[in-house]
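Now for my pick.
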Amino acid sequence: RPPRSTLFPYTTLFRSALYIHWPFCLAKCPYCDFNSHVRESVDLARWQAALLSEMRFEAELAGGEPLGSIFFGGGTPSLMPPALVEALLCEGDLLWGFEPGIEITLEANPCSVEAASFAALAQAGVNRVSLGMQSFDDAALRFLGRLHDAQEGLRAIEIALKAFDRVSFDLIYARPDHTMESWRSELQRALDIGTGHLSLYQLTIEPGTRFASMVRRGEFLPLDDDTGADLFALTQDMTSAAGLPAYEISNHARRGEESRHNLTYWRYHDYIGIGPGAHGRRGGMATQRHKKPENWIAAVEARGSGCQSERPIAAPEQAAEALLMGLRLAEGMDLAGLSARLAVERGKLIDTEELARLAELGLIWSHGERIGVTAQGMPLLDAILPRLVHDDLVEA
């Protein structure tokens, strides 16, 4: 059964969520495969009008329930003028209304220029910031293509802690030649800062990125899997001891400071996605916006929405998506609840024989109708999930 510490202290689901994608960056990081673009200039008035138009379009289709979370992702949303952020939040409040205690997150780079706008962003309504710190080592930051150095990043975290109710920051570990000693020191430095949330990602070489080309040309070797697994185990031990256990494979938080917006995705509830490349789930429909900023804005101006595709998702596919997302969480999945919610037979969700084998190996826990991946199984999650999710769902 799951440790009591993995069971979240609140039951509110914050189902109604809005994601706003700002696709622009000052530079493209070599590890990044997100929908981000570098442009010499941005027509802010035109972009504001387009984003407001998409919000109104979606509110017509998915209104009626107040928003529990808003997430500005990117790209680099901290490059948005605070006045634009405020205009979007005011429109969101008019269209949907806000739940009491709404979580409003904005992703930011920890550069001094962007940190200078933190107070204005907080005044506009942002109450949670997620900073792309990535490392406290200057050489590592240069390797990762970041524009800030460690001292500038630390200063940005300090400014953020004064401006926002909640602060999270990202670190990337398992870099080439990364050692247990250097990661232990770096992670302890992060924990000593005292934020309530950390996102700690192992470096992965994604297809189509500059790092993928560099590895193909032999310019560097990724860290070996065994050392990566040791670093993952160290990460779990240190964060748990510090009171920030993993509630998702790469996300760690004090109880009650989990990202409510991301929990919406992982618990497979509906969310509205607007802006270039944004995905959404709306009443059994999958939506996706045009990825290229110029194509997206042209579509919005032509018909009010930059949606490139909208398709119904059959119940078996929804069940597969829900399992693949939900089993990333320490809280696991309620199979009976999922079966009732999607009208998919309980026996068609999970391969029960595989479940028994994985449980015997200590990789899966079960308690009543709830199952999850153990701490020992989390490093093997990518291998476990395809075996565990029933073939009928995957093939559907």
User: Anything to note?
Assistant: The first strand starts at residue 17 and ends at 22.
